[in-house]
Design goal:
single chain, about 400 residues, alpha+beta, 4-stranded antiparallel β-sheet, 4-stranded mixed β-sheet, about 10% strand, globular
Length: about 400
């Protein structure tokens, strides 16, 4: 049984290798560049075979050949990130593959493991791999590692700050991103070093760096005591921003609202949230006496290059401006497959990007359509686990 499952995934990997060699003869993955992997026509088959390995095999039984191919496939899925997201639900597999990726040359896998390490319940030994990723010569791998470090090793952020700030081995625009990551990470842990790095950002003068410095400085001015005097224990509970957030991303999130003028849109780590303006006073009073678990509706989350619409937005008909997204009406069987968090294939006419799925005109949630498949964004913890389908479908 396990052998058949292993061979099925290896066969899918072989097919991808063959397609790559035929489509881009004589070129390795670094030489091809861009988002070339999304054109592969059989991603659904890869995803299904990968999930079978995760659910039906013990990670301890995996040999080096299987692990290498799994790391390779995670790297190739760097645009949709569906495979790495599924892997985070299987800590033993995540740990094995994270170690394997860290020792490999697959940069597109390394940055994904760095970014998703905070989301997986791993051993401290594996969580500490974030320090190795932070030292990686690849700019994007190291940057994603620093942005994830506050959640994993907040005690090491200040140690890495000068290294990232002074690196001169990258082009100017990439060095600017390295410095933005320093500001974001120091802000997350409420570091006492942040003010001096904000001054250095002003002296640097580059536009994106200045924009982030001003945003962070504004937050400090609003709550200086909280930002400057956090204890070490509070630092350990901080949540990292997955990526620096700009005004453009906040503006895009606002454009998803039916009546953006009625809502206060705020940034909390990597999340953008909308809260009704008419209740901000009441919320402020409650915050003095209670620990607020959730206030408002999460509109989206910044991950890497993407602003990902949150499922909560799809479930909020009074907020969601449906015209902001391409939509696709699906049938009953596809709707159930979506709610099971299975792979979805949309018609060739469906636009690429984030698409709102509807069943009988009722929003179900979002997918990210990359052409040959759609990455299912339905919350993992909400998925239907039963495989039962009734013989007769009754629709109210």
């Amino acid at each position: 049984m396990a052998k058949d499952i292993r061979e099925c995934l290896l066969e899918q990997a072989r097919k991808f290798h063959q397609w790559q060699e035929i489509t881009y003869p004589g070129k390795n993955t670094e030489e091809i560049g861009g988002e070339w992997e999304v054109d592969y026509p059989a991603w659904n088959d890869i995803f299904d075979a990968f999930c079978h390995v995760l659910t039906q095999m013990d990670a301890e039984t995996a040999d080096s050949v299987l692990l290498d191919e799994m790391v390779y496939l995670i790297a190739r899925d760097n645009e949709a990130e569906g495979v790495i997201q599924e892997t985070t639900s299987h800590p033993q597999w995540f740990e094995c593959l994270c170690r394997r990726a860290a020792a490999s040359n697959e940069n597109e896998a390394k940055w994904q493991f760095a970014a998703y390490l905070p989301e997986c319940s791993c051993s401290q030994e594996v969580r500490d791999i974030i320090l190795n990723f932070a030292k990686d010569p690849n700019e994007y791998v190291s940057r994603r590692a620093l942005l994830a470090m506050p959640a994993l090793r907040p005690d090491c952020v200040e140690q890495f700050a000068p290294l990232f700030w002074e690196r001169n081995c990258y082009p100017p625009e990439l060095q600017e991103y390295q410095r933005i990551a320093v500001l974001v990470s120091l802000d997350v842990i409420h570091s006492d070093l942040l003010p001096q790095y904000l001054e250095r950002a002003k002296q640097d003068g580059r536009s994106y760096l200045l924009e982030h410095a001003k945003r962070i400085e504004g937050g400090l001015a609003m709550n200086e005591k909280l930002s400057r005097k956090k204890t070490a224990a509070a630092r350990n509970n901080s949540k990292p921003s997955s990526a620096p957030m700009g005004k453009e991303q906040i503006a895009v999130a606002k454009s998803w609202l039916l009546s953006p003028e009625d809502f206060e849109v705020s940034v909390n780590g990597s999340f953008i949230t909308a809260f009704p303006k008419e209740y901000t006073g009441e919320c402020s009073v409650l915050q003095r006496y209670l620990r607020i678990v959730q206030a408002g509706v999460v509109l989206g989350e910044v991950k890497g290059k993407d602003l990902i619409p949150n499922h909560a937005l799809a479930m909020s008909p009074l907020l969601l401006r449906t015209e902001a997204f391409a939509s696709e009406e699906i049938g009953y069987e596809q709707a159930i497959a979506y709610l099971r968090k299975e792979a979805i294939t949309l018609p060739a006419t469906a636009p690429r990007g984030y698409v709102l799925l509807t069943y009988r005109k009722v929003p179900l949630g979002f997918v990210k359509n990359i052409g040959n498949r759609a990455n299912n964004l339905y919350p993992q913890e909400w998925r239907i686990r039963s495989g039962y389908l009734p013989d007769e479908i009754r629709i109210l």
